[in-house]
Every structure is written in structure tokens, then in C-alpha cells.
Design a protein that fits this description.
single chain, mainly alpha, Hypothetical protein af1432, two-stranded antiparallel sheet
């Protein structure tokens, strides 16, 4: 919470969005994790990282969610990761960095000329994958409203066919 307090003033729209969206993602991820004891998932980490995964959004230009920074919104993951890493949470930072779409490969970053660092940014650990998966079910404009798998597929199509394939594999793994 100290990290959120440092960058998100109380009683602001952007703080409410960050907290509500993070809670939606955390609750979905934890619900799925409870159904898979065989995966030996780290529940406290899942909750913390899910709540923090979008912390970099305030640094981006997204006025519809009360964020008035200079960076493009696609940068919120790696910018948030930098903040979280500097605060001493390197594992949580990886979730921030790797949650966009179903993760961003270096080849996709280069191919689409995305304004983000040239490195692999795909979730690796089961916890990272689970949080990224749960995040796809919730947006920031309609808080608390869960998206359908069909809607998620349509959203992911703007990234690549690989994103849809990855999400389909996660459906098989987690649902």
C-alpha cells in the first residue's frame, strides 16, 4: 500500500480504478488458484502482484482513467515494473512488465515498433501467467464487469494470433 500511496493520491478516480481493477484481477486469480492445489501457487504473492500490476498507469496518457502522464499507455507495464523493482519487489515487477496482452515477445515489440524496451516481456512463472490471464477478464472502464472469452479473443486479435493461442492454452490450463 505504501507504493500505491506514494503515486496515487487518496480519493482520486485513478486510485479508485487501480484498486478496484487490481482487486477484480486478484479475486479472479485467487479463485482459479484455489481450484488448482496441485499447482502449489503462492497465494500471498498472487494477491499482492495482481493489485500492483497496473501501478505504472499514472505515468501514461490515458485521460479516460484520470492518468495524465507523457508515455503511451502500452508503456505502463514496464514503467510500473521499474517503480516496483526500485521499491525492492523484483518478482512483483516481473508481473507488471509481463502482463500486457498475453505478454509481449521481443519479435512482436520490434515488428509493431512498440515504444517499449526491446526485450522479452512474456509471463513465465505460473503465478505470472495466472495474473496475466485473470487480467484479461477485466477492464478499467467498466469496473467489476467480467468480459466473455469471445470478447477477450477479439481484444487480443490486435496483438497477434500467438496471443489468442496463448490465451486458449491458459483457458485449458486454468479453467
Amino acid at each position: 500500500m505504501d507504493l500505491i500511496d506514494a503515486h496515487y493520491p487518496a480519493n482520486t478516480k485513478r486510485r479508485h480504478i487501480l484498486e478496484a481493477h487490481g482487486r477484480d484481477v486478484a479475486d479472479k486469480a485467487l479463485s482459479i488458484a484455489r481450484r488448482h492445489p496441485e499447482m502449489n501457487l503462492d497465494f500471498p504473492f498472487i494477491e499482492e502482484a495482481a493489485i500492483l500490476h497496473d501501478i505504472g498507469m499514472f505515468l501514461c496518457d490515458a485521460p479516460n482513467i484520470d492518468c495524465h502522464g507523457k508515455a503511451a499507455y502500452i508503456c505502463h507495464g514496464y514503467l510500473g515494473a521499474d517503480l516496483v523493482r526500485q521499491a525492492g519487489y523484483p518478482r512483483h515487477a516481473l508481473v507488471c512488465e509481463r502482463h500486457t496482452g498475453t505478454g509481449l515477445s521481443l519479435s512482436l515489440i520490434i515488428e509493431k515498433n512498440l515504444p517499449i524496451p526491446h526485450r522479452e516481456m512474456r509471463p513465465i512463472s505460473l503465478e505470472e501467467q495466472l495474473i496475466c490471464f485473470a487480467d484479461k477478464f477485466f477492464g478499467k472502464l467498466h469496473l467489476g464487469k467480467e468480459k466473455s472469452i469471445v470478447h477477450i479473443h477479439a481484444s487480443l486479435s490486435r496483438y497477434s494470433a500467438d496471443s489468442i493461442d496463448c490465451f486458449t492454452q491458459w483457458c485449458e490450463l486454468f479453467l
